[in-house]
Amino acid sequence: MQSRTIEWRNGTVATIDQSRLPNETVILNMKSCSEVADAINTMKIRGAPLLGAATAFALALTAYNSKAKSKEELISELEKAGEILKGTRPTAVNLFWAMDRILNKARSFVGNVEALCAFVVDEAQKIADEDAMANHLIGKHGAELIEDGDVVLTHCNAGALATVEYGTALGVIRAAFEQGKRISVIATETRPQLQGARLTTYELKRDGIPVTLITDGMVGYVMYKGLVKKVVVGADRIVKDAVINKIGTFTIAVLAKEHGIPFYVAAPKSTFDLTRTSKDVVIEERKPEEVTHIGSERIAPEGVDVLNPAFDITALDYVTAIICESGILYKKDFDKFKANCYK
Ligand code: MRU
Question: Is 163 in the pocket of ligand 1 (CB under 6 A)?
Fold first, then answer.
Protein backbone atom coordinates (compact mmCIF):
# COMPACT_ATOMS: atom_id res chain seq x y z
CA MET A 1 0.00 0.00 0.00
CA GLN A 2 1.17 3.55 -0.61
CA SER A 3 2.60 5.26 2.49
CA ARG A 4 -0.22 7.81 2.42
CA THR A 5 -3.85 6.76 2.21
CA ILE A 6 -4.61 9.62 -0.16
CA GLU A 7 -2.32 11.50 -2.54
CA TRP A 8 -2.50 14.29 -5.10
CA ARG A 9 -0.69 13.24 -8.28
CA ASN A 10 -0.79 16.05 -10.86
CA GLY A 11 -4.55 16.28 -11.28
CA THR A 12 -5.38 12.78 -10.05
CA VAL A 13 -6.35 11.85 -6.50
CA ALA A 14 -5.10 8.36 -5.65
CA THR A 15 -6.46 6.35 -2.75
CA ILE A 16 -7.09 2.76 -1.77
CA ASP A 17 -10.63 1.37 -2.17
CA GLN A 18 -11.43 0.46 1.45
CA SER A 19 -14.61 -1.39 0.53
CA ARG A 20 -12.45 -4.12 -1.10
CA LEU A 21 -10.01 -4.60 1.78
CA PRO A 22 -8.61 -6.88 3.07
CA ASN A 23 -9.21 -9.27 0.18
CA GLU A 24 -8.22 -6.99 -2.68
CA THR A 25 -5.91 -3.99 -2.95
CA VAL A 26 -7.49 -1.72 -5.54
CA ILE A 27 -6.16 1.80 -6.09
CA LEU A 28 -8.72 4.41 -7.18
CA ASN A 29 -7.45 7.18 -9.42
CA MET A 30 -10.08 9.91 -9.27
CA LYS A 31 -10.15 12.85 -11.65
CA SER A 32 -13.30 14.73 -10.65
CA CYS A 33 -15.16 15.96 -7.59
CA SER A 34 -18.11 13.69 -8.38
CA GLU A 35 -15.85 10.61 -8.44
CA VAL A 36 -14.58 11.56 -4.97
CA ALA A 37 -18.16 12.18 -3.74
CA ASP A 38 -19.19 8.77 -5.07
CA ALA A 39 -16.23 7.09 -3.33
CA ILE A 40 -17.27 8.78 -0.06
CA ASN A 41 -20.93 7.72 -0.48
CA THR A 42 -19.97 4.11 -1.10
CA MET A 43 -17.40 4.14 1.71
CA LYS A 44 -14.47 3.39 -0.53
CA ILE A 45 -13.11 6.43 1.32
CA ARG A 46 -14.08 6.68 5.00
CA GLY A 47 -12.85 7.83 8.41
CA ALA A 48 -13.29 11.43 9.55
CA PRO A 49 -9.79 12.86 8.87
CA LEU A 50 -9.62 11.09 5.50
CA LEU A 51 -13.01 12.57 4.59
CA GLY A 52 -11.51 16.01 5.32
CA ALA A 53 -8.50 15.40 3.09
CA ALA A 54 -10.66 13.83 0.34
CA THR A 55 -13.00 16.84 0.39
CA ALA A 56 -10.02 19.19 0.10
CA PHE A 57 -8.65 17.22 -2.85
CA ALA A 58 -12.11 17.10 -4.48
CA LEU A 59 -12.13 20.90 -4.43
CA ALA A 60 -8.54 20.86 -5.75
CA LEU A 61 -9.73 18.70 -8.69
CA THR A 62 -12.52 21.21 -9.34
CA ALA A 63 -10.01 24.07 -9.44
CA TYR A 64 -7.46 22.09 -11.46
CA ASN A 65 -10.01 21.21 -14.17
CA SER A 66 -11.78 24.55 -14.16
CA LYS A 67 -12.09 26.69 -17.30
CA ALA A 68 -13.34 29.65 -15.24
CA LYS A 69 -12.42 33.03 -16.67
CA SER A 70 -12.73 34.94 -13.39
CA LYS A 71 -12.24 34.38 -9.69
CA GLU A 72 -15.99 34.79 -9.09
CA GLU A 73 -16.74 32.06 -11.64
CA LEU A 74 -14.23 29.70 -10.00
CA ILE A 75 -15.62 30.38 -6.52
CA SER A 76 -19.11 29.59 -7.78
CA GLU A 77 -17.80 26.27 -9.25
CA LEU A 78 -16.13 25.48 -5.91
CA GLU A 79 -19.38 26.25 -4.07
CA LYS A 80 -21.30 23.91 -6.38
CA ALA A 81 -18.72 21.18 -5.78
CA GLY A 82 -19.09 21.89 -2.06
CA GLU A 83 -22.86 21.27 -2.29
CA ILE A 84 -22.22 17.83 -3.86
CA LEU A 85 -19.73 16.94 -1.11
CA LYS A 86 -22.05 18.20 1.66
CA GLY A 87 -24.69 15.75 0.44
CA THR A 88 -22.48 12.70 1.06
CA ARG A 89 -21.98 12.03 4.78
CA PRO A 90 -23.36 14.43 7.40
CA THR A 91 -21.70 13.43 10.69
CA ALA A 92 -17.90 13.64 10.35
CA VAL A 93 -17.16 17.33 10.80
CA ASN A 94 -13.78 17.14 9.04
CA LEU A 95 -15.57 17.12 5.67
CA PHE A 96 -17.29 20.45 6.46
CA TRP A 97 -14.19 21.86 8.16
CA ALA A 98 -11.97 21.25 5.10
CA MET A 99 -14.60 22.65 2.74
CA ASP A 100 -15.14 25.82 4.80
CA ARG A 101 -11.41 26.35 5.17
CA ILE A 102 -10.82 26.24 1.41
CA LEU A 103 -13.95 28.19 0.44
CA ASN A 104 -13.33 30.95 3.01
CA LYS A 105 -9.72 31.35 1.92
CA ALA A 106 -10.76 31.31 -1.76
CA ARG A 107 -13.35 34.05 -1.16
CA SER A 108 -10.77 36.37 0.38
CA PHE A 109 -7.97 35.43 -2.04
CA VAL A 110 -6.11 38.30 -3.68
CA GLY A 111 -4.78 37.47 -7.16
CA ASN A 112 -6.00 36.26 -10.54
CA VAL A 113 -8.01 33.12 -11.35
CA GLU A 114 -4.93 31.07 -12.31
CA ALA A 115 -3.28 31.94 -9.01
CA LEU A 116 -6.47 30.99 -7.16
CA CYS A 117 -6.55 27.58 -8.89
CA ALA A 118 -2.97 26.93 -7.76
CA PHE A 119 -3.79 28.20 -4.27
CA VAL A 120 -6.70 25.75 -3.86
CA VAL A 121 -4.49 22.81 -4.86
CA ASP A 122 -1.78 23.96 -2.41
CA GLU A 123 -4.27 24.43 0.39
CA ALA A 124 -5.64 20.90 -0.12
CA GLN A 125 -2.11 19.54 0.03
CA LYS A 126 -1.53 21.53 3.25
CA ILE A 127 -4.65 20.02 4.80
CA ALA A 128 -3.34 16.53 3.98
CA ASP A 129 0.16 17.30 5.29
CA GLU A 130 -1.23 18.81 8.50
CA ASP A 131 -3.35 15.71 9.10
CA ALA A 132 -0.30 13.45 8.74
CA MET A 133 1.64 15.64 11.19
CA ALA A 134 -1.24 15.81 13.66
CA ASN A 135 -1.51 12.03 13.75
CA HIS A 136 2.16 11.54 14.55
CA LEU A 137 1.80 14.08 17.40
CA ILE A 138 -1.37 12.35 18.65
CA GLY A 139 0.62 9.11 18.64
CA LYS A 140 3.48 10.67 20.58
CA HIS A 141 1.22 12.23 23.24
CA GLY A 142 -1.09 9.24 23.50
CA ALA A 143 1.73 6.71 23.83
CA GLU A 144 2.46 8.22 27.27
CA LEU A 145 -0.85 6.79 28.45
CA ILE A 146 -0.03 3.26 27.30
CA GLU A 147 2.06 1.04 29.55
CA ASP A 148 4.18 -1.98 28.82
CA GLY A 149 1.94 -5.04 28.84
CA ASP A 150 -1.32 -3.16 28.17
CA VAL A 151 -4.14 -4.73 26.22
CA VAL A 152 -5.91 -1.92 24.36
CA LEU A 153 -9.42 -2.26 22.98
CA THR A 154 -10.31 -0.21 19.91
CA HIS A 155 -13.49 0.09 17.86
CA CYS A 156 -14.07 0.65 14.15
CA ASN A 157 -10.97 1.75 12.25
CA ALA A 158 -9.20 4.90 13.39
CA GLY A 159 -5.99 3.91 11.70
CA ALA A 160 -3.81 5.01 8.79
CA LEU A 161 -6.70 4.08 6.49
CA ALA A 162 -9.06 6.52 8.23
CA THR A 163 -6.55 9.36 7.97
CA VAL A 164 -3.88 10.60 5.60
CA GLU A 165 -1.20 8.63 7.45
CA TYR A 166 -0.52 6.78 10.74
CA GLY A 167 -3.97 7.02 12.32
CA THR A 168 -5.43 8.53 15.48
CA ALA A 169 -6.39 5.71 17.90
CA LEU A 170 -4.14 3.32 15.98
CA GLY A 171 -1.51 6.08 15.88
CA VAL A 172 -1.43 5.95 19.70
CA ILE A 173 -1.15 2.15 19.62
CA ARG A 174 1.52 2.29 16.87
CA ALA A 175 3.60 4.88 18.72
CA ALA A 176 3.51 2.85 21.96
CA PHE A 177 4.51 -0.28 20.04
CA GLU A 178 7.31 1.59 18.24
CA GLN A 179 8.62 2.67 21.67
CA GLY A 180 9.10 -1.01 22.45
CA LYS A 181 6.09 -1.41 24.76
CA ARG A 182 4.79 -4.97 24.58
CA ILE A 183 1.16 -4.27 23.93
CA SER A 184 -1.65 -6.07 22.21
CA VAL A 185 -4.97 -4.98 20.78
CA ILE A 186 -8.53 -6.22 20.95
CA ALA A 187 -10.42 -5.04 17.86
CA THR A 188 -14.21 -5.11 17.73
CA GLU A 189 -15.61 -6.25 14.38
CA THR A 190 -17.83 -3.12 14.16
CA ARG A 191 -21.19 -4.13 12.70
CA PRO A 192 -22.52 -3.49 10.14
CA GLN A 193 -19.67 -2.27 7.92
CA LEU A 194 -17.01 -4.36 9.71
CA GLN A 195 -14.28 -1.72 9.69
CA GLY A 196 -12.71 -3.37 12.75
CA ALA A 197 -12.69 -6.88 11.30
CA ARG A 198 -11.67 -5.82 7.79
CA LEU A 199 -9.42 -2.80 8.27
CA THR A 200 -8.07 -2.55 11.84
CA THR A 201 -6.89 -6.16 11.96
CA TYR A 202 -5.42 -5.76 8.45
CA GLU A 203 -3.42 -2.67 9.45
CA LEU A 204 -2.20 -4.10 12.75
CA LYS A 205 -1.23 -7.47 11.32
CA ARG A 206 0.71 -5.69 8.57
CA ASP A 207 2.66 -3.81 11.27
CA GLY A 208 3.22 -6.93 13.38
CA ILE A 209 1.14 -5.60 16.30
CA PRO A 210 -0.65 -8.48 18.07
CA VAL A 211 -4.41 -8.20 17.57
CA THR A 212 -7.40 -10.31 18.58
CA LEU A 213 -10.73 -9.85 16.85
CA ILE A 214 -14.00 -10.03 18.81
CA THR A 215 -17.61 -9.34 17.88
CA ASP A 216 -19.18 -6.15 19.26
CA GLY A 217 -21.34 -8.12 21.69
CA MET A 218 -18.28 -9.64 23.40
CA VAL A 219 -16.96 -6.35 24.85
CA GLY A 220 -18.73 -6.74 28.23
CA TYR A 221 -17.45 -10.26 28.70
CA VAL A 222 -13.81 -9.47 27.87
CA MET A 223 -13.90 -6.50 30.24
CA TYR A 224 -15.51 -8.58 32.98
CA LYS A 225 -12.74 -11.15 32.52
CA GLY A 226 -10.12 -8.39 33.05
CA LEU A 227 -8.75 -8.76 29.53
CA VAL A 228 -8.85 -5.02 28.67
CA LYS A 229 -6.58 -2.42 30.29
CA LYS A 230 -7.48 0.64 28.20
CA VAL A 231 -9.85 1.73 25.45
CA VAL A 232 -8.71 4.08 22.67
CA VAL A 233 -11.14 5.11 19.92
CA GLY A 234 -11.31 7.83 17.28
CA ALA A 235 -14.03 10.44 16.75
CA ASP A 236 -16.13 11.82 13.91
CA ARG A 237 -17.02 14.98 15.79
CA ILE A 238 -16.27 16.32 19.25
CA VAL A 239 -18.88 18.80 20.41
CA LYS A 240 -19.27 20.79 23.66
CA ASP A 241 -20.85 17.89 25.54
CA ALA A 242 -19.98 14.68 23.72
CA VAL A 243 -17.90 12.59 21.40
CA ILE A 244 -19.67 11.30 18.30
CA ASN A 245 -18.12 8.17 16.86
CA LYS A 246 -18.96 4.88 15.17
CA ILE A 247 -22.10 3.16 16.39
CA GLY A 248 -21.19 0.97 19.36
CA THR A 249 -18.74 3.45 20.90
CA PHE A 250 -21.23 4.54 23.57
CA THR A 251 -21.84 0.95 24.68
CA ILE A 252 -18.08 0.43 25.02
CA ALA A 253 -17.72 3.67 27.02
CA VAL A 254 -20.46 2.66 29.46
CA LEU A 255 -18.91 -0.78 29.90
CA ALA A 256 -15.46 0.78 30.41
CA LYS A 257 -16.83 3.06 33.14
CA GLU A 258 -18.58 0.12 34.81
CA HIS A 259 -15.29 -1.80 34.89
CA GLY A 260 -13.05 1.17 35.84
CA ILE A 261 -11.18 1.04 32.52
CA PRO A 262 -9.80 4.34 31.11
CA PHE A 263 -11.66 5.41 27.95
CA TYR A 264 -9.53 7.59 25.66
CA VAL A 265 -10.52 9.39 22.46
CA ALA A 266 -7.81 10.28 19.93
CA ALA A 267 -8.66 12.95 17.34
CA PRO A 268 -7.11 15.94 15.59
CA LYS A 269 -8.50 19.42 16.25
CA SER A 270 -10.10 19.35 12.78
CA THR A 271 -12.62 16.97 14.43
CA PHE A 272 -13.51 19.51 17.17
CA ASP A 273 -16.80 21.36 16.65
CA LEU A 274 -17.07 23.27 19.90
CA THR A 275 -19.77 25.73 18.83
CA ARG A 276 -22.29 22.86 18.78
CA THR A 277 -23.78 20.37 21.20
CA SER A 278 -24.76 16.78 20.42
CA LYS A 279 -28.38 17.87 19.80
CA ASP A 280 -27.24 19.94 16.78
CA VAL A 281 -25.54 17.03 15.01
CA VAL A 282 -27.11 14.94 12.26
CA ILE A 283 -26.44 11.27 12.88
CA GLU A 284 -26.14 9.55 9.51
CA GLU A 285 -28.71 6.83 8.82
CA ARG A 286 -27.50 4.31 6.28
CA LYS A 287 -29.42 1.90 4.10
CA PRO A 288 -31.16 -1.13 5.73
CA GLU A 289 -29.29 -3.60 3.47
CA GLU A 290 -26.13 -3.01 5.52
CA VAL A 291 -27.95 -4.69 8.44
CA THR A 292 -30.15 -7.22 6.64
CA HIS A 293 -27.27 -8.52 4.51
CA ILE A 294 -23.69 -9.60 5.02
CA GLY A 295 -22.01 -8.83 1.74
CA SER A 296 -24.59 -9.83 -0.86
CA GLU A 297 -26.17 -12.49 1.38
CA ARG A 298 -29.47 -11.74 3.09
CA ILE A 299 -29.46 -12.76 6.78
CA ALA A 300 -32.81 -11.27 7.90
CA PRO A 301 -36.32 -11.88 6.58
CA GLU A 302 -37.47 -9.70 3.73
CA GLY A 303 -39.47 -6.65 4.79
CA VAL A 304 -38.17 -6.50 8.37
CA ASP A 305 -37.95 -2.98 9.81
CA VAL A 306 -34.37 -1.84 10.33
CA LEU A 307 -32.60 0.98 12.16
CA ASN A 308 -29.12 1.76 10.90
CA PRO A 309 -27.59 4.82 12.57
CA ALA A 310 -23.90 4.96 11.64
CA PHE A 311 -22.76 6.82 14.77
CA ASP A 312 -23.65 7.26 18.42
CA ILE A 313 -23.13 9.90 21.09
CA THR A 314 -20.93 9.43 24.15
CA ALA A 315 -21.28 12.16 26.79
CA LEU A 316 -17.94 13.60 27.91
CA ASP A 317 -18.60 12.21 31.42
CA TYR A 318 -17.58 8.81 30.07
CA VAL A 319 -14.35 10.08 28.51
CA THR A 320 -11.17 9.90 30.61
CA ALA A 321 -9.14 12.08 28.22
CA ILE A 322 -9.00 13.31 24.63
CA ILE A 323 -5.65 13.04 22.87
CA CYS A 324 -5.10 15.66 20.17
CA GLU A 325 -2.04 17.11 18.44
CA SER A 326 -1.63 19.75 21.19
CA GLY A 327 -1.50 17.20 23.99
CA ILE A 328 -3.83 15.35 26.35
CA LEU A 329 -7.05 17.05 27.44
CA TYR A 330 -8.67 16.05 30.73
CA LYS A 331 -11.96 16.90 32.48
CA LYS A 332 -10.91 20.48 33.30
CA ASP A 333 -10.35 21.09 29.59
CA PHE A 334 -13.78 19.64 28.77
CA ASP A 335 -15.29 22.33 31.01
CA LYS A 336 -13.68 24.86 28.66
CA PHE A 337 -15.41 23.12 25.73
CA LYS A 338 -18.75 23.71 27.44
CA ALA A 339 -17.99 27.39 27.92
CA ASN A 340 -16.68 27.46 24.33
CA CYS A 341 -13.39 28.98 25.51
CA TYR A 342 -11.04 26.15 24.56
CA LYS A 343 -8.34 27.26 22.13
O1 MRU B 1 -18.32 5.18 8.96
P2 MRU B 1 -16.84 5.38 9.04
O3 MRU B 1 -16.05 4.15 8.76
O4 MRU B 1 -16.38 6.56 8.23
O5 MRU B 1 -16.61 5.75 10.57
C6 MRU B 1 -15.31 5.94 11.03
C7 MRU B 1 -15.24 6.15 12.49
O8 MRU B 1 -16.23 6.14 13.18
C9 MRU B 1 -13.90 6.45 13.05
O10 MRU B 1 -13.80 6.00 14.37
C11 MRU B 1 -13.69 7.97 13.05
O12 MRU B 1 -13.98 8.50 11.80
C13 MRU B 1 -12.31 8.33 13.43
S14 MRU B 1 -11.15 7.87 12.21
C15 MRU B 1 -9.64 8.44 12.66
Answer: yes
d(CA 282, CA 279): 8
CA distance 322 to 324: 6
Query: Is the minimum distance from the CB of 246 to ligand 1 under 6 angstroms?
Result: yes
pLDDT tens digits, residue range 186-204?
999 999 999 999 999 999 9
Any idea which residues carry the catalytic annotation?
236
**Residue with CA closest to ligand 1 atom 14:** 158
- Taking the model in full, what pTM does it have? 0.97
Q: What is the 3-state secondary structure (H, E, C) of 221-266?
A: HHHHCCCCCEEEECCCEECCCEEEEECCHHHHHHHHHHCCCCEEEE
Which residue from 91, 94, 131, 157 has its CB within 8 A of the most atoms of ligand 1, so it is best to mutate? Answer: 157
State whether the beta carbon of 271 lies less than 6 angstroms from ligand 1.
Answer: no
Q: What is the mean pLDDT of residues 78-99?
A: 98
Summarize pLDDT for 51-75 with one digit per residue, the tens.
999 999 999 999 999 999 999 999 9
